[in-house]
Every structure is written in structure tokens, then in C-alpha cells.
């Protein structure tokens, strides 16, 4: 089976996984996001990024997810419809 992500593989293998949740920063500066989630990189298997929490303007959850992927952190993208 081809795995969609590391999280997908761990779940299918029956491993217990750790996830964390954060909101994208108010800033569009990726360094603000990376500083915020740096401590989660070696603890969480994936980080859930909420979309438009509190209906306030934040960095796009999709943009934040791309930044996490580029920095070796698996995102769980949450979209509000």
C-alpha cells in the first residue's frame, strides 16, 4: 500500500500517534509560525492547523501547512466551510 503521509502509515500500522493543535499567527511572516511550533517538531506526529479561529484574520491555514511541510512537520489541515 502506498502511504499518503507518515501519519497515515503510523495509523495503519496501529501505532499510537500524538497530534497538537495551533492557530496560524496573525502575521504573514513564516518565522513567527516556525518559532511558535518549533517545540512540537520532535513531540507531535502531526500538527493540526485551525482555519480562521474566532473569525479573525490570520495566516491562511493552507499557507501554514505548506510551511510546515517545507520544515519537516506533518500538518493536519482544518478547513471551515
Automatic annotation (TrEMBL):
GO: which molecular function terms?
A: methylenetetrahydrofolate reductase [NAD(P)H] activity
For whether the record's keyword set contains NAD, the answer is no
Which Gene Ontology terms describe the biological processes this protein takes part in? methionine metabolic process; tetrahydrofolate interconversion
Task: Reply yes or no: does the keyword Flavoprotein apply.
Answer: yes
Required co-factor(s) are: FAD
Q: In which pathway does it act?
A: One-carbon metabolism; tetrahydrofolate interconversion
Per UniProt, which keywords does this protein have? FAD, Flavoprotein, Oxidoreductase
Q: What is this protein's name?
A: Uncharacterized protein
What organism is the protein native to? marine metagenome
Amino acid at each position: 500500500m502506498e502511504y499518503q503521509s507518515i501519519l497515515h502509515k503510523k495509523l495503519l500500522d496501529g501505532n499510537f500517534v500524538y497530534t497538537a493543535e495551533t492557530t496560524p499567527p496573525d502575521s504573514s511572516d513564516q518565522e513567527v509560525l516556525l518559532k511558535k511550533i518549533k517545540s512540537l517538531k520532535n513531540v507531535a506526529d502531526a500538527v493540526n492547523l485551525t482555519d480562521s479561529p474566532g473569525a479573525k484574520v490570520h495566516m491562511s491555514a493552507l499557507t501554514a501547512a505548506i510551511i510546515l511541510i517545507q520544515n519537516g512537520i506533518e500538518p493536519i489541515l482544518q478547513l471551515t466551510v
